[in-house]
Q: What sequence folds into this?
């Protein structure tokens, strides 16, 4: 159980430094991915997730990820991550040009591990806040 | 509290939300309750959260919150839930649509030894909700 939490700590530390070998070691190739962002992964496996993260890396050249909260129970681990960065590269798939806007958003992922590897995830991200910070959507109220 | 008591506390809170029991919710939040989920126009405090719950109860009278999964460790519980209902009134800048929605969320709560809610982080699929309500702006460009 503590080992699973340690595994997710390692995983969450890999994204910003582009350490995809560790990502492939920790996430099973055909893991089951739930949540609003899941359907955008192409291909629909860990390689699709890595491609999405690489695209985000080009958009936010100085991106940082901070693990705010991580804990687990049995096979499941929850992580709350704060993402910050500046839009220096643009997000063409959203029709957003590079504009230097600063973003600061959270996401929460619930992981289920099997034999020490991620087998299933459920995630939520502050996409609405991200879109407002990028100037792609008007602030609601 | 034991993990079982933590889970029972979450169930009781969800039951209170479903019967729109603002008095239960007020009693359950500590005086120095901290809300980390951004709530436009209200402070991140107990009073702010109560204002938000009252606005939600008024705008979505049939709103239903359901617990799909929980992860407990120490004084923290993560709850993956489903939030559904019909938006018949204005809510957080969203005009009344009369349409219904069903989205997922992940919440993290820190509880006190006597079962009160001291701190809350949460993200719901707001973009999914706005899409289902027909409120998403067209993409720019």
A:
């Amino acid at each position: 159980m503590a080992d699973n939490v340690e595994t997710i700590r390692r995983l969450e530390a890999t994204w910003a430094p582009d350490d995809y070998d560790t990502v492939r070691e920790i996430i099973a190739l055909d893991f089951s991915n739930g949540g609003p962002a899941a359907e955008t992964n192409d291909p629909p496996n860990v390689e699709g997730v890595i491609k999405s993260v690489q695209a985000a890396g080009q958009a936010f050249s100085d991106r940082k990820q901070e693990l705010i909260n991580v804990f687990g129970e049995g096979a499941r681990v929850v992580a709350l991550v704060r993402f910050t960065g500046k839009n220096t590269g643009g997000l063409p798939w959203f029709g957003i040009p590079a504009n230097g806007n600063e973003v600061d958003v959270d996401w929460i992922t619930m992981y289920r591990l099997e034999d020490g590897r991620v087998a299933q995830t459920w995630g939520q991200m502050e996409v609405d806040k991200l879109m407002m910070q990028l100037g792609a959507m008007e602030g609601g109220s | 509290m034991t993990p079982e008591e933590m889970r029972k506390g979450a169930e009781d809170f969800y039951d209170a939300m479903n019967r729109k029991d603002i008095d239960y919710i007020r009693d359950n939040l500590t005086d120095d309750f901290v809300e980390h989920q951004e709530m436009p126009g209200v402070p991140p405090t107990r009073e702010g959260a109560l204002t938000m719950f009252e606005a939600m109860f008024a705008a979505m009278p049939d709103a239903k919150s359901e617990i799909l999964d929980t992860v407990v460790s120490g004084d923290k519980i993560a709850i993956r839930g489903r939030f559904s209902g019909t938006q018949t009134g204005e809510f957080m800048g969203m005009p009344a649509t009369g349409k219904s929605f069903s989205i997922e969320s992940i919440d993290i709560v820190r509880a006190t030894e006597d079962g009160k809610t001291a701190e809350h982080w949460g993200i719901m699929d707001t973009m999914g909700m706005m899409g289902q309500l027909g409120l998403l702006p067209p993409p720019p460009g």
